[in-house]
Structures
1.
Amino acid sequence: MTADVLVVGAGPAGTTAAAHLAASGWKVLLADRAVFPRPKPCGDYCNPGATRLLASLGLIPQLAAVETGFIEGMTVVAQDGSRFQETFPAGCGALIRRERLDAILLRRAEQCGVEIVEGFRVDTVTVNDSVEVRNEPSGRALRARLLIAADGMRSIAAQRLGLLSRLPDGRFSVGAYFAGIPGSPAGELYLGGGLYGGVARFGDGTANVCLALPRALFRGRTPDETFEQGVRALPSLREAMRPWTRESPFRVTGPLGFSRHPVVGDRAMLAGDAAGQVEPLTGQGISFALRSGLLAAESAARALTSGDLSARALRPYAQRRAAVLGPKIRMMKLVSALALRSRVTPALVRRLAVHPELARGLLGATGDVLGPGAVLSPGYLIRLLLGLDAHQA
Ligand SMILES: Cc1cc2nc3c(=O)[nH]c(=O)nc-3n(C[C@H](O)[C@H](O)[C@H](O)COP(=O)(O)OP(=O)(O)OC[C@H]3O[C@@H](n4cnc5c(N)ncnc54)[C@H](O)[C@@H]3O)c2cc1C
């Protein structure tokens, strides 16, 4: 049996693309190596843009049913203890364990008519008159007219299709779940020189702590030792975590942050992290994955209707993706470059603490509810950086 579309990877990008196409009447297969619910290394933070997209898919009741923590803003803390706490200029964020979020998205895809194939690891991809993916040990194969590869940052499909990129020697992450945390849901970002940590307090007594650290800190150390080293560089986080107890093993992944070109080939499109990953510093990955899944589905539907599934015919997806996500990625890189300089970070955080309109602009742009121009404009940057005394940091 040959489907119209085979989507590989049932994360936010793959489930969104698959559901959109199936709801439009196309025959869609969605294959994932995992059996759901499955864990995924993540900070578990859906920014306001992602939450808005999830709301547009009608998923707020399902999120609320699994104790999702909804938050109205964020706290950002520098390594010297300086901090600002600000509300988002629009919408709210959502803190939800990825195994729950992705299971909700998968169920929705199924309800839209997608045929789900769990426990199917794609090992090979062959493109000729159709696309065939195969699981080597079992010899099982799936076929379709078009492949959407949404199999994450280590995309096997992208590698097999020759859509390769060299992963940078970037930061790696180490994280775990902790218990013994009172209080309501809250999102916190701790900044240090060249490293950072995100905390999602779910409001149910547990939290996810996820650190992004230079690769060198992982060499010759166990994940526990690396985590301890990272927390030591973020004194406010260390203090906050004193009474907490770890309730899950540490998860390590990386390198974080890379781009991949091209994102289309004959009968193939890359979506979500498979097409490139942004550093999780600004918490935009889920938002980008949902968005790129939708963009891929819209372009796929047009190409399927025309019958031309060549790389040339699929190029409008690459162009739309670059137009929609490109400026956001540039903004994110600028924010990372500024936020992780040890001499600058504390002064920057103090300036944002006394200029709430600048802090709201930053949270809005990184939260995907304001355009990146809110931060990339000369006016914003001058107001942010003017009078910034990095030496007092
Ligand atoms: C440490 C860390 C923290 C992060 N924190 C945040 C955060 O707080 N907020 C945020 O918005 N973003 C965050 N991100 C980014 C976010 O997790 C990703 O951008 C997002 O998950 C991408 O979604 P996706 O659908 O493209 O891929 P994924 O969510 O990675 O899903 C890929 C799917 O493909 C499947 N798969 C992989 N290989 C195969 C194969 N060979 N065959 C079949 N199936 C396969 C996997 O099982 C998986 O289900 C974080 C990332 C990391 C690494």
2.
Amino acid sequence: MILVRHVDNTKLTPPQQWTDRAAKELEKLHEDAVDADKKFLFSEMWREDAIRDRLIALMDKCWYCETSFVRSPYHVDHYRPKSAVAGEAKHRGYWWLAYDPANYRLSCHHCNSGGARYGNQSAGLGKGARFPLLGQRAPEGGSLDRELPVLLDPVASEDAELVGFDRQGFARRRPEQPYSGHEVAQDLCRVDETIRMLALNSDLLTEGRSTLIGSVIELVQLYLIRRDDAVVAQYARKQIDSLTQTTAEWSAAAASAERLALLAHDRSGDDAPPAGETEANAAEGADGGTEPQTATADGHRVDLRTLVAALPPAAFSAGGIALTGRGKRGPAKATLLEDGRIMCFRQPMNTPTSAARMAAGDDTVDGWAFWSLTVDGKARTLADLRDTLIAQRG
Ligand SMILES: [Zn+2]
């Protein structure tokens, strides 16, 4: 089951005339590349309607956040940034992919260039030239097959399967999906990092998704309760189909809500509405509800589900445990919840590193060393607590 919409761009073919011009432009870049100090000059051919219209034809909404825009043009984003890589001053960017349509993703302004908000606070700069990896970066002009991008890629179907949504409209990593070995090795979660960098839980998105999820749940209830009335059932079915179709705005969240409502109904065994279902027992994202909700074997190196289970429940009696940290911008605060999530700027983050980077406005912070909490009157870092736990368990 795919939750974020996967875009199949394998059949994307620009007009021949565009391809010929692009080949000439690329030749110029190769000539310029010989001089390490020369600044690349790009002809912004990716902005042309011939390209944008073809990308829109593949999926007419932002490929990252699924927002549809009527009166604002989409950006054509380079998935691998063309002229720089954030945090790597010497990197000249993936210039050799500047005119490669396979590197283009349709994007809204917020995902590409920032401007999204959390309450009265800016949600950051958007994707821009950020392109962190879990391993080695490919040499200039070299093969990209072994690169492991942190940012989820809308054209990679396996990436789309990693994301789910809760009832409040927040995107999140599907809890039953195991972390990859590379995520464990780097102590970070690709979904959480993508949500953070692209502000996929900005106010606009969570409000839009939660309204949509509410509508879908109501329609599913109507469909189930009135299924003996063909006209009503047909109406509800049609509405559900239009909200969940691949091309509809935020339809990944709508599809997730439909499954959640049906699952809740199946479990209740009668016609009781699933409205009272909480996120935890609705097993959001669990196909058939059989997948384990507990942390995976190595998960405790990435998120806090194992750690919170080892803390006394009374520690959460005030609603959560205070976390403190200190970054470039000064002191930072967050709250560790009983389910292992960290509330930071009213955003539920699933991993300490993404929460710390959000709090500190710094893409390089390690959240395990950043956050401390007080245990028996003594401040201890999450890394310290984790290491103690791992040592205890052998
Ligand atoms: Zn977007």
